Amino acid sequence: QRMTDEKMLAQREQVRRLGQRLAAPADGEPMVLLHGTELNIAPDGTVDWPAEFLDGFDVCVASVHSHFSQPRAQMTRRFVTACENPYVNVIGHPLTRILGRREPVDVDLDEVFAACARTGTALEINGSPHRRDLPDEHLRRAKAAGVKFAIDSDAHSTVQLGYPRYGVGSAQRGWLTPDDIINTWPLARLSQFLRKAR
Fold it and tell me: What are the residues whose beta carbons fall under 8 Å from the beta carbon of 11, sequence distance 6 or more?
């Protein structure tokens, strides 16, 4: 919301400094902190920042937040173009639905699944009870196509940080295993996945 280059660069520096402290704590286990962002997928499939700016992030999630009524072919091309961006690691809430408020977009999911598998782009399993997107009824089909997934909370406040458990439930109903979920992987494997074709 109203994020500027300057605000994001300041945040990036804060995360870097905190990451240095967590990597060598005075007591306890070291922790690696990744800096990520959610990008908007524009109607033509492009995202917010140019490549040189995106290269500074460890992980980028790209999501559709507008123009929900695009025709099926155009919406599908929009998602595929985002998958083909070497800086997009995860496609967020792929159906864009909000339960009881907004219907899913009209998109060829099989084509999106194929693009994700081809480009090494994960699909989000959004744990928000208002979204539950990607729904479990699509997960087995996506897995069969070779897709990997990321489970998250879509938290907009600290009280929503427990939402991943709903995403885990969806993953279980879709017969996914930890091997299918990138945020269960060891750091070395995750880091390799996040580099995509770069």
Answer: 35
Chain center to CA of 7:
21
Question: To which H or E segment does residue 122 belong?
Answer: strand 122-126
Q: What counts of helices (H) and strands (E) characterise the chain?
A: 7, 5
Instruction: State how far the Cα of 132 lies from the Cα of 124, in Å rounded to an integer.
Output: 10
Q: What residues form DSSP beta bridges with 98?
A: 102
Structure tokens at 174: 């879709």
Tokens of 53: 């700016």
- Who contacts 188 (Cβ-Cβ below 8 Å, separation ≥6)? none
Nearest partner of 108 among 78, 82, 151, 84, judged by Cα: 78
Query: What is the C-alpha separation between 146 and 133, in angstroms, rounded?
Result: 18
Write down the pTM of the prediction: 0.94
Distance CA 27, CA 190 (A): 26
Mean pLDDT value across residues 168-191: 96
Residue from 10, 116, 117 nearest 56 by CA = 10
pLDDT of residue 25: 85
Pairing of strands 36-40, 59-63: parallel
Look up residue 114 and give its amino acid: A
Contact yes or no for 108/70 (Cβ under 8 A): no
Three-state secondary structure call for residue 157: coil
